[in-house]
């Protein structure tokens, strides 16, 4: 790993052995039923809580929050709660105080987000109307995070997400545990339907629709298999992330881009941008 102090330019490998291809994902299609989308996002949140693929992200996220001097995180593309919530205890312990979290999504899982807010005692807030990561409402100020979702955006859209954060001088952290390395990901992807069949009884909230669309008509297992494959094909490498930041011309921002360990032999690719001077 090489560290360049001036730009805080961290290089830690590309994390990609095939060319990036922007394949479609079922759950982001406009005509994909909201019921199926919610089942998929709840399943993703279940695995995030169970496996903690982002556990090594907490120190650098805490450091970024210290850099900007803030205690509020605006999570974009949250799905049913996002992996961010699994990091909260470590973040709060590291920073020595309670953090305020705002969960948002373009296709919000209203039931799941409302339940999280109700159970949090006020620490977690939600926006139940659609929030576009490329044009976040100015009143939603705070350090922005995106977990397992940046690959959904084409290059021009990904740049627009970064431009929007820079324009409003908000810190941003992007974290992806998928990567374009099928030596690592082929077996986990092929086992995805089987893993879902075993995990479904333990996913909460309990829904009869989950049993229907998993066991009787296996929409969820096969949509998850395809979306996982497409996610790997879409994931940006560190080199591609550097090109995105360089195209912004934002000289007042410090960028860190690299990879840290995740599950097994896999890695989390990260991008963190903070306005200089906080």
The outline comes out as: globular
CATH superfamily caption: Vaccinia Virus protein VP39
Named CATH architecture: 3-Layer(aba) Sandwich
Percentage of helical residues? Answer: 40-55%
The H-and-E topology, N to C, reads as: EEHHEHEHEEHEHHHHHEE
Oligomer: single chain
Q: What's the Cα radius of gyration? A: 18 Å
Please summarize the sheet with the most strands.
7 strands, mixed
- Uncertain residue ranges: 1-12
CATH class: Alpha Beta
Q: What is the end-to-end distance?
A: 25 Å
Q: Reading side by side through the largest sheet, how are the strands ordered?
A: 5-4-3-6-7-9-8
Based on helices, strands and strand pairing, what is the structural class?
alpha/beta
Number of separate structural domains: 1
Range of strand content = 15-25%
CATH domain fold name: Rossmann fold
* Number of helices, where a helix is a run of at least 4 consecutive DSSP H or I residues: 10
Description of the molecule:
The longest helix is centred in the N-terminal third of the chain and has 18 residues, at 34-51. It is built from ten helices and nine strands. The strands form two sheets. A seven-stranded mixed beta sheet has the order 5-4-3-6-7-9-8, with helices on both faces. It has a two-stranded antiparallel sheet with strand order 1-2. The protein has one domain: Vaccinia Virus protein VP39 (Rossmann fold, 3-Layer(aba) Sandwich). With 278 residues, it is of the alpha/beta class. The chain has helices at residues 34-51, 58-68, 84-95, 110-119, 155-167, 182-190, 192-199, 208-216, 219-234, 238-248, and strands spanning 2-4, 9-11, 72-76, 100-103, 124-126, 143-147, 172-176, 253-261, 267-275.
